[in-house]
Design a protein that fits this description.
40% helix; alpha+beta; four-stranded antiparallel sheet
Length: 97
């Protein structure tokens, strides 16, 4: 999932992602974007089948979050190290842009 072009596109455009937990304990991953035909197609290709409109976008577009249910993150030390390495790689790319 960390290599998803859709996820990276949303991050680089809006500089954030959402990670949340539902009442039943499931995790959701939200990618910011707008609701239009092209973005809906790409979201579904990468498994983001749901869209939640933001309360107020302030930009006149249909801004919100494409989201999907994700498995609970591993709690091992290796998983944490990998997550931090992926995060730092994204930040380095962001700084070079």
């Amino acid at each position: 999932m960390g290599r998803s072009n859709f996820l990276q596109h949303g991050y680089y455009l809006y500089r954030h992602l959402l990670l949340g937990r539902t009442k039943d304990g499931s995790y959701i991953l939200g990618v910011p974007g707008t609701r239009n035909q092209q973005e809906e197609y790409m979201a579904q290709v990468f498994g983001y089948e749901h869209f939640k409109m933001a309360a107020s976008s302030g930009c006149g577009r249909r801004f919100g979050y494409w989201y999907r249910i994700v498995e609970a993150p591993e709690r091992s030390a290796e998983a944490g190290i990998q997550l931090m390495q992926d995060y730092h790689k994204m930040k380095e790319k962001d700084a070079m842009a």
